[in-house]
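Final report, Chapter 2: Outcomes

The project's central promise was a pipeline that accepts a single protein chain and returns its three-dimensional structure in a standardized token representation, suitable for archiving and comparison. That pipeline is now operational. To close this chapter, we reproduce one record exactly as it appears in the project archive, with the input sequence first and the structure output second.
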Amino acid sequence: SLFIILLFMWTVNIAFSCFVLPPGDDENFFFGTAMGYLYKHQFGRFFINDEFTPGFQDYLAFPFIQSGFLYLTSLINIPINIFTYKIFHFITILLLFFLTIYFIKLIHIANIKNALLNSSLFMVFLGISPFAQRFGHYRPEIIGIVFVMIGLILYRIWHISKKQPNLIFYFSALSLGMSMAIHPNFTIFGA
């Protein structure tokens, strides 16, 4: 079907961009901070002349999550190099796609044909949006959008279940709050 073809094309595009595009000019601020926390257990961003120079930045939640992922990959001996440092970014982009498609399905729970049509339209329109030009760069916006989508999905599940288990509502609010800690752009979504 068209939906499977579009999903496959986006997956190939994401994999290609994450492993082939050169690093962006500001990726060192996020990845370097994560490396500093991973190796020195403090937030810092530069190794200069074999010395660790501490430095702080605005967004500490994103490097903290990234350093946790780097720690998990170090447990299974995946080296950090030019080809593997964007694995977390690749996973979060794919997670964003699947969460968005699931959210569309939750919205159209009564009519699955509308859900497939809207999911296909989502992938087509995303291809002509500014997201398609910038998603390959390692930035905190993607994981922030993932937390927004998790919050919206949990809220929709809570709303469908006749607002019974308040724990789902609290986790929805926590997820939206995490998106604000990832990047200030998401403050409007969490408010």
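Archive annotation: The first helix runs from residue 2 to 20.
This record, like all others produced under the grant, will remain available to the consortium after the project formally closes.
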